[in-house]
Amino acid sequence: MAAKIGLVMEGGAMRGMFTAGVIDVFMENGVDFAAAVGVSAGAAFGCNIKSRQIGRVIRYNKKYCADKRFCSVESLMKTGDLYGADFCYREIPEELDIFDKEEFERNPMEFYVVCTDVLTGEPVYHRLDKVDDECYEWMRASASMPMVSRPVSVGGRILLDGGMSDSIPLLFMQRQGFERNVVILTQPRSYVKEPSNKLVLRVGLADYPAMIKVMEDRHIMYRCERDYVFECEKRGDTFVICPDDYLPVKHTEHDPEKLQAAYDEGRRTALRELDAVKEFVSL
């Protein structure tokens, strides 16, 4: 019996344009997966592989990246969210660049998002099958960066960005029975994450001590998870796709040309690795 193949997509805010380029190449070339898990931008952008919408991520991000309703200090001051919740998770998918709900629900691919419970600091994994208001809230929670986003109440929990507690959920997918996985990283192999500023964390997250602890230790968790990914790559059950160098985008990138450059790098990398990926998923 053939192994079930999974796809793991880490976050990284607008570095997610790299991931968008990779999954568009996968969709264009018939590379399919039994399941996918996305964290933060990997969830908000990666969901388009289940709805089979090639080009949607780069299209709406380039169009609205300079719109204050999309991402701005003004939005943060008015609503508590740097990325406007209503604009990003209702107006865009429902009115401006329609998210294909029917295809998302029809596609048999399992799709999971990762969030962090702000009261416990533990990762929360949730499978999305139906597109409704709650589905959008799970995606928003997964991508809600601490200190520039309001915690999201959904599923009986209070949640923030999944990347704080499980940045690269390869082990989660393996535990779901997906023996072989493609992992999309948005940092190069040489990347080493630095510790966060503890004083800023303790001021910005004073109401959530468990989140402070998680974020203080995040660089350790991230290093361990990357080490595990590369160990799995060496033993042959994991295929890693990542940029060759640091991507030319900031977390809150307002320059459409830089977004396009990160997306194009994802496409170039995926096309270079396409034959090897096809062989990997067909074994």
Residue stretches low in confidence (pLDDT < 50, at least 5 long) are none
Mean pLDDT: 96
- Sheet with most strands: 8 strands, mixed
Total beta strands:
8
Order of helices and strands: EHEHHHHHEEHEEHEHHHEH
How would you sum up the global shape? globular
Give the N-terminus to C-terminus distance in angstroms: 10 Å
Radius of gyration: 18 Å
Query: Helix- and strand-based class?
Result: alpha/beta
Oligomer: single chain
User: Helix coverage percent of residues?
Assistant: 40-55%
Would you write up a description of this structure?
- Strands 1, 2, 3, 4, 5, 6, 7 and 8 form an eight-stranded mixed beta sheet that branches.
- The protein contains twelve helices and eight strands.
- It is 45% helix and 14% strand.
- A hairpin with a 5-residue loop joins strand 3 and strand 4.
Summarize the structure.
The protein has 283 residues and is an alpha/beta fold.
Primary descriptors:
about 280 residues; alpha/beta; 8-stranded mixed β-sheet; about 15% strand
What layout of secondary structure does this protein have?
Layout: E1 5-9, H1 16-28, E2 35-39, H2 41-44, H3 56-64, H4 73-79, H5 85-96, H6 101-106, E3 110-117, E4 123-127, H7 133-142, E5 152-154, E6 157-161, H8 170-175, E7 180-184, H9 198-204, H10 209-216, H11 218-235, E8 238-241, H12 256-282
Parallel strand pairs: 1-2, 1-7, 2-3, 7-8
Antiparallel strand pairs: 3-4, 3-6, 5-6
